[in-house]
Design goal:
single chain; 108 residues; alpha+beta; two-stranded antiparallel sheet; 3 helices; 4 strands; 28% helix; 26% strand; extended
Length: 108
């Protein structure tokens, strides 16, 4: 009985986590995230979010059901001011980002 309850709780946590992604967007029912399922050298299996930049274009050409695709790339920049390094994480995105997602803009 305890194992059954534990399994139900784990399934609930998993489903709640999956439904938490970007549900506030107007077209959230048509937005998908592409992950790569891969095996590491040690034999473990995991997911990777990083894709080749050309994948978005290739998928829209190969699959007619894909209407739009956008890429978001995370990077890191180092700025040195008066011999003090400052590290900042930044994101770059395609111009189609705001056609797909409805982020509330504060300014700009």
């Amino acid at each position: 009985m305890a194992i059954g309850i534990a399994c139900c709780i784990l399934i609930y946590i998993f489903v709640k986590h999956e439904w938490s992604y970007d549900g506030f967007h107007e077209k959230s029912d048509r937005i998908y995230r592409v992950l790569i399922h891969e095996r590491a050298p040690d034999g473990s299996i995991g997911f990777r979010v990083l894709q080749e930049p050309s994948l978005a274009d290739a998928m829209t050409q190969a699959f007619p059901g894909i209407r739009q695709a956008t890429r978001i790339v995370r990077g890191r920049v180092t700025i040195i001011h008066e011999n003090e390094p400052f590290y900042e994480t930044l994101f770059e995105a395609d111009s189609s980002l705001f056609r797909m997602f409805t982020f509330p803009l504060v300014a700009g």
